[in-house]
Design goal:
Layout: E1 18-25, H1 29-42, E2 46-53, H2 55-68, E3 74-77, H3 87-92, H4 113-116, E4 117-118, E5 121-122, E6 125-126, E7 128-137, H5 138-143, H6 152-164, E8 168-171, H7 182-191, H8 199-204, H9 215-227, H10 240-248, E9 252-258, H11 261-268, E10 274-277, E11 290-294, E12 297-300, H12 307-317, H13 320-327, E13 333-334, H14 348-356, E14 359-360, H15 370-384, H16 390-403
Parallel strand pairs: 1-2, 1-3, 8-9, 11-14
Antiparallel strand pairs: 3-12, 4-5, 6-12, 7-9, 7-10, 7-11, 7-13
């Protein structure tokens, strides 16, 4: 693909007939397609070529591509330090362009700025606010005679109803590594953060550990759900894609996933009505918390030869129009809120938890290095397959965290 160089001397430059290379997560395909179509209508001289890839592929291939000088112009980045394609990780390696001069920066909410900034400068445009919870088919829920549970005991009873109705409650495919983290993130939101909202700070200061915290209870509950038959019979043999298909085709009532997966389910089963609930981890419904945070964000390659067009594109993505297009059919909320956006009904639980202040950041966003998340993937796969126990998982996570 031929890229046109943009002038950096201050003289006028043309973006006629340029092609911008964008790389996005496959879970955000519908969102990015809507934004690209609108941008190209407003800028008919520009063309956008988008490549979509899974989370695991992005987190491994993207840093390598940027390092070799062959990376895309605009690409998905994650908040914090939590993985190899996170904002702070890539900025430290000099891979991200400074976006501080763009207009969207002034409208980023205060509690979101940490996602986009390093040392006072902005290096990413946040695209959506997402949550992790149980997404379910309303038809399948009716078929088993169930309702959304508000307590742990009700959740276990719903598992039994699903099995009696010839289904599993939650499709689970941990052959896709990043899927491993979602259920215990959803549980840890309550078992860890409900009583210790400053837990992440305590860990970073050496005053808390995985082993001596509510993470133990979260993992024990993860195992209990698996042993109770709440998940697919062979989680290690299924992928993200098969779990989505299981919900779309009615073999599973739902799936514990990021909210943006609602669009993937409805794409596979148009017309299927979906609901969502925060995964309860205790019997006091008022204590239930939900992971909620900026999920998708985008950075600009610091060495892009098409930087003028790249900056124009991320500016559009940060506008009210771009934010609303990105989130209109994606099961997510704008990361930069505006009064023109109406949330999809399926997102009501996320909106309510956000308003109530009972959301917590995705846990890996607050970890000190990418290795903790990678170790987490490996350990949960081992835990669900019986090759590791809870003590071993917690010890491995603490050791990896402390190395960072």
């Amino acid at each position: 693909m031929s890229l046109s160089a943009c002038g950096g001397s201050g003289s006028p430059s043309s973006i006629d007939d340029e092609t911008l290379e964008v790389t996005a997560n496959i879970t955000d395909r519908a969102a990015m397609k809507a934004v690209v179509a609108a941008f190209e209508r407003e800028n008919p001289q520009a063309k956008i070529a988008v490549t979509y890839a899974g989370t695991d592929q992005l987190q491994s291939a993207l840093p390598a591509g940027l390092s070799s000088g062959e990376g895309p112009d605009v690409f998905t980045v994650w908040p914090g330090y939590g993985n190899p394609a996170a904002v702070r990780t890539l900025e430290a390696a000099g891979r991200l362009a400074d976006l501080s001069g763009l207009d969207f920066v002034r409208r980023v909410p205060e509690d979101t700025k940490w996602v986009t900034r390093v040392g006072g400068s902005t290096y990413a445009v946040p695209a959506n606010y997402s949550g992790i919870g149980a997404i379910y088919s309303k038809k399948a829920m009716r078929d088993i005679g169930g309702t959304s549970p508000e307590t742990w005991d009700e959740l276990l009873q719903l598992c039994d109803k699903a099995r009696a109705g010839g289904k599993v409650l939650f499709a689970l495919g941990v052959e896709t590594p990043w899927v491993t983290q979602l259920a215990d993130y959803a549980l840890a939101a309550t078992t860890v953060y409900a009583d210790h909202p400053d837990f992440a700070t305590e860990m970073s200061n050496g005053r808390a550990t995985f082993a001596d915290s509510g993470w133990r209870k979260a993992l024990e509950k993860y195992v209990e759900l698996n042993e109770r038959g709440c998940f697919s019979s062979n989680p290690a043999g299924g992928s993200y894609e098969t779990s989505i298909q299981d919900v779309a085709e009615g073999r599973a009532v739902g799936v514990v996933q990021v909210a943006s997966s609602t669009s993937a389910i409805t794409a596979a089963a148009p017309g299927l009505q979906l609901g969502m609930f925060a995964l309860p981890a205790g019997n006091d419904a008022a204590q239930t918390h939900m992971p909620g945070a900026v999920s998708a964000a985008y950075g600009v390659n610091s060495h892009s030869s098409n930087k003028e067009l790249a900056l124009k594109f991320v500016e559009f993505l940060g506008s009210d129009t771009g934010q609303n297009l990105y989130n209109q059919d994606s099961g997510t909320l704008p990361a930069i809120p505006n009064d023109r956006f109406t949330a999809a009904p399926v997102l009501k639980p996320l909106v309510e938890h956000q308003k109530a202040g009972t959301t917590v950041p995705f846990m890996d966003q607050l970890w000190p290095n990418p290795q903790v998340q990678q170790e987490h993937f490996v350990q949960i796969q081992a835990l669900l397959s019986g090759r590791a126990d809870v003590d071993g998982v917690l010890t491995a996570l603490d050791e990896t965290y402390q190395e960072g």
